[in-house]
Automatic annotation (TrEMBL):
This is DUF541 domain-containing protein. It comes from Massilia atriviolacea. Transmembrane segments: none annotated. PANTHER family: PERIPLASMIC IMMUNOGENIC PROTEIN, SLR1258 PROTEIN. InterPro entries: 26kDa_periplasmic_antigen (IPR052022), SIMPL/DUF541 (IPR007497). The lineage of its organism: Bacteria, Pseudomonadati, Pseudomonadota, Betaproteobacteria, Burkholderiales. One of its GO terms (biological process) is DNA damage response. Pfam families: SIMPL.
Amino acid sequence: MSTMDILAVHVTSFPGEPMLKTLATLGALTLLPTAAPAAGLPDYPFIHVSGVGSTVVMPDLGQIDFEIAAFDADPAAAVGVIAARASEIRAAMEQAGVPLEDVEIRDVRKDFRKQDPAAAPGPVLYDIRAGVRINVRDLSRWRAAATPLLAMPNLDGFMIVFDTSGREKIEMALAGDALRIARRKAEGIAAGLGRKLGAASAVSTGDLKNLTRAMGLAPGEPGSRSPAQRIGTERAELLTVMSLKFAQPVDVIYRLK
């Protein structure tokens, strides 16, 4: 097996772009004077760099998920409570300017409420629940939509989700930003070695796992689409609109001339 010189360098960079902050990590520089000594490694001198484009944006879409829950020895009475709350929710959303087609009440479920073994025996209570999903497509109406829910009884299990209609555009911009940062770092390393940077021979929006393992380096965090911001919350936190964090990693292999 031929000798392989490996130089591992880590670089953090925060360029001055106002909207797109970037983080670039130089993963490793490998010079191969002869044919590749291990399966999976390129058989030419190369530089392997990683870059991450990241930004924080405010959402323009929101979703509120929760349950209506009622307990009663008479299941019909509990169902009546569910129906009453559902009507109140629809009326409140209509007043807030949320279209009724964006208010979904579904999955009415019936079960028995578990009794506390330490408590005195009592009547068996039915546990009736219905799921509610409210899509708020105009966040200027978010507070008006969320406020009435704070005072309503029988509501449980709140979860709020924020997203942006510009997700695809943001992710594409971050990928381009990460590629530019990765190339700048590779050019700097090549110049330091007295070499010129060649063409990119491999690009991945994430960790090049086979190459990383072959070089004996610990794999980085896996790259993936930035998820919508999903937050389990108490009622008092419903009024807060949360920002979205995006990150798009890239791994690039450049030939050395």
